[in-house]
Amino acid sequence: MTSAGSGLSLLQTCALSLLVFTGASQFALVGALAAGGNPLTAAAGAFFLGVRNAFYGLRLSQLLALPRAVRPFAAQWVIDETTAVALAQPTRRSVRIGFTVTGLSLYLLWNLTTLLGAAGAEAIGDTDAWGLDAAGPAVFLALLAPMLKTTTERAVAGIAVLLGLGLLPVLPAGVPVLVAALAAPAVLYVTGRRRADATPGAVAAGPDATPEAATEAATEEPSAAARDDGPGAPAHENDGPADMSGGDR
Amino acid sequence: MNIWIAIAVTAVGCYAVKLVGLLIPAGVLERPLVQRLAALLPVALLAALTAQQTFADGRVLVVDAKAAGLAAAAVALILRAPFLVVVAAAVVVTAGVRALTG
After folding, report:
1. Tens digit of pLDDT for each residue in A160-212?
2. Cβ-proximal residues to A72 (8 Å cutoff; 6+ apart), any chain
3. How would you classify residue A174: left for phi > 0, otherwise alpha for psi between -120 and 50, otherwise beta?
4. Under a CB-based contact definition with an 8 Å cutoff, are residues B14 and A46 in contact?
5. A19 contacts on B by Cβ (under 8 Å)
6. What is the distance between the alpha carbons of residues A237 and A79, in angstroms, rounded to a whole number?
7. A190 Cβ partners below 8 Å, 6+ apart?
């Protein structure tokens, strides 16, 4: 699918790429317009694909800790790739560098290739034959693997994979990924319930059990706090990949 | 003109959702539950996205050369290979399987 073949002018194609800058939304909009869709319906579909960026922003806002005045400028770069790179960084400094370098280089490359493509440059050949289409998911996999440190994260990733794949054939584009995001609150709810269930049982067992329950609750909390600290916390690189094969299925 | 309207609406909408996440007040983000949720949401989104990029062809699920490539990347990760080796493994195996299966 090229925007050139869908009735968009060179100017429109480049404006779309520069202003929207979230690949899935761009392709969705171009596809819907090419299929003769109503412009607002087409825009709604593209919007759905962009909604996940709000959840990325929520996390990036903590990690980047940008001054409020800078945030409107950083916002345009809040996408899958910059989030994946930023989240994989051990310190606040490297989070900021990772976000900026990824954002800037992708913004330039993406818009340059859009311009070249729209200007009629023929494709370099079949990039799929070179296996280059596997590079994208492989990069995400490599960035995601170190984040899967605890059972909680692995459970979230595993459920999200099942939801994202299972719902793909039945829900409109962009929606399965959003539903997959529900894995996060669902797992948090279950782990919260499990902890709540464990505590009264321990208390009922007698006064001796209470310190244990307290320790149990206390050991859960710091681990969560350490994880949320992201930058500053020591990097556990390549800590989780052994489980990625399981999480990937 | 219609196309410009579609582009404008998409651009404003997509920029707004990107900005919303960044502008959530720090006070809200300090709540432990929000922190844990914010940390887990990208994991869920990126995991689902990675799986879809690997196994989806449009809206159809497929297991093809790309799946073999990603399996190779997973093996490289388990062997603690450097980042570029992981990505190269995926690309080379995908291309190889495609070449072999025509």
Report:
1. 999 999 999 999 888 899 999 999 999 999 998 888 887 664 444 444 444 44
2. B19
3. left
4. yes
5. 7, 11, 15
6. 23
7. none
Give pTM, 2 decimals. 0.78
Q: Return residues 29-58 of B near A (CB < 8 Å).
A: 29, 32-33, 35-56
Is the CB of residue B95 less than 8 Å away from at least one CB of chain A? yes
Contact between B48 and A177 under an 8 Å Cβ cutoff? The reply is yes
B41:A59 CB<8 A: yes
- Let me know: does A164 contact B52? Beta carbons within 8 Å: yes
- Cα separation, B85 vs B76, in Å, equals 7
Q: Are strands B56-57 and B60-61 parallel, antiparallel or unpaired?
A: antiparallel
State yes or no: ipTM above 0.95: no
CB contact under 8 A, A39 and B54: no
> A39 and B3 in contact by Cβ < 8 A?
yes
Chain B contact for A165, CB < 8 A?
A: yes
